[in-house]
Design goal:
alpha+beta; three-stranded antiparallel β-sheet; 7 helices
Length: 240
């Protein structure tokens, strides 16, 4: 009788721990998925149905070619405080994505933005398996408001160890860091970046520059007619 009671207590405790530790479900829609990567749409909890200014400008059309150009402009730089930068100089800028990653992301993020609702954001997950329990991950998300593209990099080439038990968080929450961030996210051309306010603590923890707001209107190519007029003003003899 005592053994049965103990078994019952153990079963109830295990059930409580199982459901008590379960992470909340994030509603999402898969746009693309393979064994190691995905692009999906997920509900943005910061969008309030009763407050239209919080709504994203979705669906949104951004052609894969233009999106690839934008993603190619994203660079990552090792984070360092002022004293470190003074001692060893600025760290080099490294492209955020490889050519293969750019091809995948530009195609499927473009598709995701075209299908997104006003309360959804696009998230992505890229991984390179190293062993059965370890992989290198790059994750993040983005959304559009007006003419502004908001881009956040949650993880960049972080080694993630799959826990022996418990919840696997890297795939469930692609916009959240799995470790302390040691990088700054940079965009070129820099004049298209809208400055953001951040706290002193964010700067120390390398959280101040993991998100960018890009003004899409600053990336529009100049009109051919305008360029021709400027050329002729400088070379009148060639345009006669």
């Amino acid at each position: 009788m005592l053994l049965s009671f103990r078994c019952l207590i153990f079963a109830l405790t295990s059930t409580f721990l199982l459901f008590g530790c379960a992470a909340p479900h994030v509603p999402s829609r898969i746009i693309y998925e393979d064994p190691v990567n995905f692009v999906r749409l997920e509900e943005d909890s910061e969008v309030l149905p009763e407050w239209p200014p919080s709504h994203h400008t979705h669906p949104f059309t951004l052609e894969p070619e233009k999106l690839r150009t934008i993603l190619s402009g994203l660079k990552v730089q090792e984070h360092g405080i002022a004293l470190q930068r003074w001692w060893r100089g600025e760290s080099p800028l490294v492209p955020a994505f490889t050519d293969e990653e750019l091809a995948l992301l530009s195609a499927y993020i473009s598709e995701a933005l075209a299908e997104a609702k006003h309360n959804e954001r696009v998230t992505f997950y890229l991984s390179q398996p190293q062993t059965f329990a370890r992989r290198i991950i790059t994750t993040g998300g983005l959304y559009v408001q007006g003419n502004e593209l908001h881009m956040l990099l949650g993880n960049w080439r972080i080694i993630y160890g799959i826990p022996a038990y418990g919840m696997i968080y890297d795939r469930r929450y692609p916009m959240r860091p799995t470790a302390a961030k040691g990088f700054d996210l940079i965009f070129q051309p820099s004049d298209a970046v809208i400055p953001m306010k951040s706290s002193f603590l964010d700067g120390i923890l390398a959280n101040a520059k993991d998100e960018l707001i890009i003004d899409l209107t600053k990336l529009e190519p100049s009109e051919p007619r305008v360029s021709l007029i400027r050329f002729c003003m400088n070379h009148e003899s060639l345009c006669e």
